[in-house]
Specification:
Chain lengths: ~325, ~425
């Protein structure tokens, strides 16, 4: 099969994406596929139109590649692609939208409020900050609505740090959210097809909200499968599957949660989780007995099984 | 941050993030003539291995460069290395045992810290001000360590036109630093890549000169006065340290490129290297001035920056509520890049309101446009902060405001050098 591996792009997560892409290319070659590496740029549509791949493996992270944009183009070009479809990507990329969907579906997610910069510029939202801080309490988390890899995410220890954290978060998006800090264990529950994979627990060394810690070997310790009682693990996987369905995902996704004293709380869903050699989805697959090549083959299979949704002429 | 830096390489990005000299200033004809001469006259030798320590002829060139700053080392103490970076690595490799303390400046050269860490050193940073390292704080640190029965393996310092800070260690502090090293029997690794690139003020003696080479290991490079592409640097160290470094060098790469050593030999034989450095000084001085003028015009009044008397970098500090790593994300959308200050600190949080700006690699128009774009994203951040907090900005001096209003529509689309 001729498979285009879409990687790179202009997003801030370009470096991670290139590493994910390179690893996927190696796996596809080992599986005997005809691999077409594509650094997603201005010639993306031209290249795909000319090369006519049988499928596209989307190894892009962040806006553009993970938010439904590239997925929409692939629908139009009628090229089957890995990972969730357009609508699910739109919902997962925007944490605010995702959290509203979760709330509507009865999935536990930490309390939050969200603003766009217009709220501050035109409607004096600053006046409401005091009330928000009282409601959510401190410490709280400030993060951009659309952004990945914890870029621009700040843990705010006291109310007077909120404006600075907002300015940071607004560097990545014109919408930000303030979220209640939930104490608990940091878990990632990946879904592949219809199945929940073994749960990964992240135990950060030092600062918990650090972009580099996520991608550098040794900065965070990961345990898979996480040491959880069977009923707790089952409950976490159930919540992950429910979230996957509520956001309309297909193929695969990674659901990040906090396991609080009173049960799991879902933070966000990554439509295109990292596939680097330190990434969590491949780790979970391995714990389930799947080698990376097998995981890639299964992802590709799920892509070709899913019908395309773009209107036909 | 490494990942953020990965996208600064896009061709449309004005990068003030690098530390590159402008190699377009080197005459291609000179380069061609020398390489031709080498091919015609010394082909077999130039393509062969060379001695681990480097050729005597290369050392003669090094002595000339060091002589220009008043130093006269024994050629036997000189080791030719593959760039200044290898000199740093070999010092670290030869001296550091796991757990040893290495002292450096805060901020320091971001490329040095990973080297020290890879040999499992405990890196301690000493604060700096406009006169360079706070030698009084170093003294307190050395005393404290002595109380704990510890002594740093060495003090890594860039005393002249510091990277990234741009400042220069004052003469008084240089003397005191050398005294402290002697008193505490601690080595200093003096990294001096920029010393000859002085655009103003009076030259100061290198630490190596003041100390006579007893406690100072000197690290030099041809990268900034000739070419970083030839990967040619050197270290000057007392014999016991030198022996270990030579062994380390042998293990690392046997010898430094013979070909580029021949190139340097031929180039120095023309006796025009100082003239070329002089031309670089003129070019870089104009660029520094252009950058400083652009900063005055486009950066907010409560920002501050160093005006370096030489070297390649300006260090700018913004109001405390602006995190320059996040600012970089925004700046990249405007196709401009810089190095966030946090990269120059071990703890990853200090320096988060500062940035390093390079002025040697771009011409004046590009520098102005780059600084203008950064200024614009800073303005946006400040306005947002003020909207959120209800604080009011420090007003810009009216003269500047008028000038800007008048000139803003005239800002031309950036002329890219590749086309010109």
């Amino acid at each position: 099969m001729k498979v285009a591996v879409l990687k790179g792009g202009r997003s801030l997560e370009r470096g991670v994406s290139l590493r994910s892409g390179a690893r996927v290319e190696d796996a596809l070659e080992a599986l005997g596929h005809d691999v077409l590496p594509v650094d997603a740029g201005a010639d993306l549509v031209a290249v795909l139109t000319a090369e006519k791949p049988d499928a596209a493996f989307v190894a892009l992270h962040g806006p553009g590649g993970e938010d439904g944009t590239v997925q929409e183009l692939l629908e139009i070009l009628r090229i089957p692609y890995t990972g969730p479809g357009v609508a699910a990507c739109v919902r997962c990329m925007d944490k605010v939208l995702a959290k509203h969907e979760m709330r509507a579906a009865g999935i536990p997610t930490p309390d939050f409020v969200a603003f766009n910069d217009t709220a501050f510029r035109e409607f004096g939202a600053a006046q409401a900050l005091g009330e928000i801080e009282r409601t959510l309490g401190v410490p709280l988390i400030v993060k951009p609505a659309r952004g990945g890899s914890s870029l621009g995410v700040k843990l705010v220890a006291s109310a007077d740090e909120v404006p600075e954290a907002l300015v940071s978060a607004f560097s990545y998006d014109d919408r930000v959210l303030l979220e209640r800090r939930i104490e608990g264990r940091e878990l990632a529950a990946s879904v592949l097809g219809e199945d929940a994979l073994p749960i990964v627990e992240a135990i950060p060394k030092g600062d918990a909200f650090d972009f580099e810690a996520r991608y550098e070997i040794g900065r965070t310790e990961y345990h898979c499968p996480a040491e959880l009682d069977a009923d707790v693990a089952a409950a976490v996987q159930e919540v992950a599957l429910a979230t996957f369905r509520a956001l309309g995902c297909s193929g695969f996704a990674r659901v990040d949660l906090i396991l609080a004293a009173d049960g799991p709380q879902v933070l966000e869903v990554n439509a295109i989780p990292g596939l680097t050699d330190t990434s969590l989805l491949p780790m979970a697959a391995e714990a389930a007995g799947m080698r990376f090549e097998q995981l890639v083959e299964r992802m590709l299979e799920l892509a070709t099984e899913r019908p395309l949704t773009a209107p036909l002429a | 941050m490494r990942d953020l830096m990965a996208i600064t390489a896009r061709p449309e990005v004005i990068s003030l993030a690098g530390g590159l000299p402008d190699t377009a200033t080197f005459p291609p004809r000179t380069f061609a003539a020398q390489m031709t001469k080498i091919a015609q006259e010394s082909s077999a030798q130039a393509l062969q291995y060379g001695p681990t320590e480097g050729f005597e002829e290369t050392k003669d060139c090094i002595l000339e460069v060091m002589g220009a700053e008043g130093m006269l080392p024994d050629p036997d103490d000189v080791l030719v290395t593959t760039g200044g970076q290898q000199a740093i690595d070999l010092v670290a490799k030869s001296l550091i045992d796991p757990g040893d303390v290495v002292v450096c400046e805060a901020p320091t050269y971001p490329g040095a810290v990973p080297v020290f860490c890879s040999y499992e050193a405990e890196v301690i940073q000493v604060a700096t001000d406009e006169d360079g390292m706070r030698v009084d704080e170093l003294e307190a640190l050395l005393e404290r360590l002595r109380g704990e029965g510890r002594r740093p393996k060495f003090i890594y310092s860039i005393p002249t036109f510091q990277n990234p800070g741009g400042m220069t260690l004052s003469l008084e502090r240089r003397r005191r630093l050398v005294e402290l090293a002697r008193h505490h029997e601690v080595l200093i690794a003096e990294d001096n890549p920029y010393g000859l690139l002085r655009y103003g003020g009076e030259p100061l003696p290198p630490l190596y000169h003041l100390d006579g080479g007893d406690y100072v290991i000197y690290l030099g490079t041809f990268s900034k006065i000739l070419s970083p592409g030839i990967r040619l640097g050197w270290a000057v160290a007392p014999p016991p340290v030198m022996e270990k470094m030579v062994l380390g060098k042998q293990a690392a790469d046997l010898c430094t490129s013979t070909l580029t050593q021949y190139f340097v030999r031929e180039y120095f034989a023309e006796r025009r290297w100082l003239e070329y450095v002089g031309s670089l000084i003129d070019i870089y001085r104009a660029r520094r001035n252009a950058m400083v003028e652009a900063l005055e015009r486009f950066f907010p009044p409560d920002a501050s920056w160093t005006v370096p008397e030489g070297g390649l970098f300006v260090w700018a500090t913004l109001p405390p509520y602006i995190d320059t790593t996040d600012l970089l994300a925004k700046a990249l959308r405007e196709d401009v890049a810089f190095v966030p200050g946090a990269a120059a600190f071990i703890d990853g949080s200090s320096g988060s309101h500062s940035m390093r700006l390079n002025f040697s690699a771009s011409d004046e128009d590009v520098l102005r446009e780059g600084v203008r774009r950064i200024g614009r994203v800073i303005d946006e951040q400040m306005t947002l902060f003020q909207t959120i907090t209800g604080e009011h900005p420090v007003p810009r001096p009216p003269a500047h405001a008028d000038e800007e209003a008048e000139q803003a529509p005239n800002v031309l689309p950036l002329r890219r050098r590749a086309e010109g």
